[in-house]
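Q: How would the structure tokens look for this protein?
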Amino acid sequence: MSSKAAVLSPNTSQRRNESALRAALRRSLRKDRLAWFCATVLGAIFLVALFAPLVAPHDAFAIRPELRLAPPGTGPYLLGGDELGRDLLSRLIIGSRNSLIIGFTPVILGLLVGGVLGLAAGYFGGWFDDLTMRVIEVFQAFPSILLALGIAAAIGPGMANIVFSLSVISVPYFARMIRSSTLATRNQDFVQAAIALGCTTPRVIWRHVLPNILSPIIVLVTLQAGRMMVFGAGLSFLGLGITPPNPDWGAMLSAGQRFLATAPHLATIPGLVIFTVTACLNIVGDAIRDILDPHQQ
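A: Here is the predicted structure in token form.
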């Protein structure tokens, strides 16, 4: 009876996992200053994107021909004007919303769809596992960026279309990783004990399996978000992303590359912003992976 109470107690494994995660974050804060700085930069960028209309110093769509291709520091524009005389800084701020949506929404959708498929395949196995893995292998047989490019070219440009194309290529990564983690956790003693004591399948998955595979999921989310931002910027660069005049970092980089000789800031500034965000995401993801690695604890 006591063993049954121990297994059915309110999520003992989840509390242990949450405590380990908090301790890991504290160690990261003390030991990895670069990761903490990058996390601060990402937090500031998210806040700017959230309050973009209030933060932008000028109208991002207002055309001023006299400030066309104006260098940084010219007149009222801190970062200069673009090819139509619009404020580059304001367009970067307003475009941060679109760029972050393109970067993170496919990750969330890929995690939801791939998570369900990976959990079901790893936990139940059998024909569903075989079928799921074969379908995933078909998608992963193509280079991810080429597959996203083909889907985006087939359905046309636009926010919804680019998010859909990037979501499709995100699903296999999450499904395969979560399946392998579920397979390893499924055979642990505490999961087998919960099953033997009559816990329902949803309870076993929610209370015992899922909390113990959160660490690799968190790491993959951070790394995949940076990857999707680069892919999204690449699709926008090719004209398959946000439609003008709506600002987007990738589209701004594409427009600026035509003026590299006369106004290099139009391409270099959006490029540096994309590089900064993706580099910070990868550094934070690497730090979380190192801290949550049991061999380093």
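The longest helix spans residues 88-124.

Residues 114 and 173 are 8 Å apart (CA to CA).

Upvote if useful.
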